[in-house]
Specification:
This protein has three domains: 184 residues, 3-Layer(aba) Sandwich (Rossmann fold); 187 residues, HUPs (Rossmann fold); 95 residues, 2-Layer Sandwich (GMP Synthetase, Chain A, domain 3), CATH 3.30.300.10. It is built from 16 helices and 18 strands. The strands form three sheets. It has a nine-stranded mixed beta sheet with strand order 2-1-3-4-9-8-7-5-6, sandwiched between helices. Strand 7 and strand 8 form a beta hairpin. About 3% of the residues have low confidence. Bound molecules: xanthosine-5'-monophosphate. The site of xanthosine-5'-monophosphate has 11 residues, from loops.
């Protein structure tokens, strides 16, 4: 696949993946590389540009991360951000020291005329987060932006294509920050914008066709975004040579298993084997109250069912996995990425007889995976599907699980989700679902006393599930969902809304 590449050199800053995503959003492909590997990757990839990220260190600390001198001599434009800017200055003969005034948050800045700030308002605001600053510039550099307390807020050696910005153009609070990245990519690095998901799909399908030929492929299909998009992409190339195994553990959401079969098997003609193992799972979970035991039982049972189904197919050549780029980055290196993807599918590769793993999405961020999903014609409910835990409703029914409780929770959850989706608020919410608590309380319905279940509604905003706030849903929407649930779902007489952030709570109740 031929496209221009930018190398983003990772110095350990908190916004590194964000920088890479922002570059991709500008239709330029980039790779996030640990700084220790920068020189060899640059040699290998022949990038059109290099970006140094921020990082928590001081450039003059004894073990401060740096790059090989060859990186500066490669003749490739470099944009250093925060620590990356200080590193450029330090490495090329300037000096960096602890700033007399630390800058955090939004700051006024003056941009002086330069290719990096083309088309931008001269008096502007940026986002700062630093204790050190560049005190004197290396030879050949000039100041191109300043704030009240940071005289070299940005600097450049235009002849060598080297730029440093002390602030963070990648964060949303930096006004016109996207334009700075765009100016660097298109103005300085002469990007052509050749990274788009339409081409990605065409290139992947033709590469997969060539690789797969007439070989047999197997995919563990959960219905989640990554496995759905990976399987659909491979199906384009492999047709009936691809078999998907979809384990229905009976703890999916309301009518979810039917929906998966409709969208993929019926509408797309994909070979999806639905292994209906609900009774087995529910039987094994009978009387189990501990969340961790529930998880272990479901994980082990899932592998057992998958193995049983996979054995029926005999040996396969390839196993498809929905690994995506953040999994690869988090695992550090290609080698450990495989360990992580094994982990993702709960040890499946150990029980399937296959030659090779195919990971068609391993270069993509989540938002790119969604774009590929749309390119492949998948419907919005599949492409925008919220994260759903592998153990499913088992960890949303507090205490022991019974078929009746599953039914109550599925109905309540369906109503809540539908109300949020129909009102349009769902698109801003990371996860939203109902929980069946193990509390019963007294109510009154039609002049009669009731003693029924309490359902908790949970909706959280966030970007990665690591930290979250509870979603401030308008009262009238909560009120409608609550009324509908108590009226339409038997055995429920009370609804509560969870107003805890993570931390200290977690997203799931178990
Ligand atoms: P917590 O509850 O830890 O959840 O805040 C963070 C994210 O992980 C999901 N989650 C799971 N996903 N198996 C999964 O595949 C699990 O056992 C599991 N537990 C939590 C949760 O839905 C949220 O997206």
């Amino acid at each position: 696949m031929s496209h221009q590449t930018v190398i983003v050199v990772d110095f350990g800053g908190q916004y590194n993946q964000l920088i890479a995503r922002k570059v991709r959003e500008q239709n330029v492909y980039c790779k996030l590389i640990p700084c220790s590997q920068a020189a060899q990757e640059i040699e290998k990839e022949k990038p059109i540009g290099i970006i140094f990220t921020g990082g928590p260190n001081s450039v003059y600390a004894p073990n401060a991360p740096k790059v090989d001198k060859a990186v500066y001599e490669a003749g490739v434009p470099i944009l250093g951000i925060c620590y990356g800017a200080q590193l450029i200055a330090h490495a090329l003969g300037g000096s960096v020291k602890s700033a007399p005034v630390r800058e955090y948050g939004r700051r006024n800045i003056s941009y002086l005329g330069n290719a990096l700030f083309e088309g931008m308002d001269k008096d502007n605001t940026c986002w700062m987060s630093h204790t050190d600053y560049v005190d004197s510039l290396p030879d050949g550099f000039k100041v191109i932006a300043k704030t009240d307390s940071c005289p070299a807020a940005a600097f450049a050696d235009e002849d060598r294509g080297l730029y440093g910005v002390q602030f963070h153009p990648e964060v949303v609070h930096c006004s016109q920050g996207n334009l700075i990245l765009r100016n660097f990519l298109y103005g300085v690095c002469k990007a052509t914008g050749d990274w788009n998901m339409g081409d990605f799909v065409r290139n992947q399908v033709s590469a997969l066709k060539e690789k797969i030929g007439n070989k047999k492929i197997l995919c563990a299909f959960s219905g989640g975004v990554d496995s759905a998009v990976a399987a659909t992409l491979v199906h384009r190339a492999a047709g009936d040579n691809l078999t998907c195994i979809f384990v229905d553990h009976g703890l999916l959401r309301y009518k979810e298993a039917d929906e998966v079969m409709r969208v993929f098997a019926q509408e797309r003609g994909m070979k999806v084997i639905k292994a209906d193992a609900s009774d087995e799972f529910i039987g094994k979970l009978s009387g189990v109250r501990s969340p961790e035991r529930k998880r272990k039982i479901i994980g082990a049972e899932f592998i057992k069912v998958f193995e049983r189904e996979a054995k029926k197919l005999g040996k396969v050549d390839y196993l498809v996995q929905g690994t995506i780029y953040p999994d690869v980055i988090e695992s550090g290196k290609d080698k450990s990425a495989v360990i992580k993807s094994h982990h993702n599918v709960g040890g499946l590769p150990d029980v399937v007889d296959f030659d090779e793993i195919i990971e068609p999405l391993r270069d993509l961020f989540k938002d790119e995976v969604r774009k590929v999903g749309y390119e492949l014609g998948l419907p919005a409910p599949v492409v925008e599907r919220q994260p759903f835990p592998g153990p499913g409703l088992a960890i949303r029914i507090i205490g022991a699980i019974t078929p009746e409780k599953i039914d109550v929770l599925q109905r309540a959850d369906y109503i809540f989700r539908k109300e949020l989706e129909d009102s349009g608020v769902a698109k801003d919410i990371w996860q939203y679902f109902a929980v069946l608590t193990n509390t019963k309380s007294v109510g009154v319905m039609g002049d009669k006393r009731t003693y029924e279940y309490t359902v908790a509604l949970r909706a959280v905003t966030g970007v990665d599930g690591m930290t979250c706030d509870w979603a401030h849903i308008p009262y009238d929407i909560l009120s409608k969902a609550s009324n509908r649930i108590v009226n339409e779902v038997p055995r429920v007489n009370r609804i509560v809304y969870d107003v805890t952030s993570k931390p200290p709570a977690t997203i799931e109740w178990e």
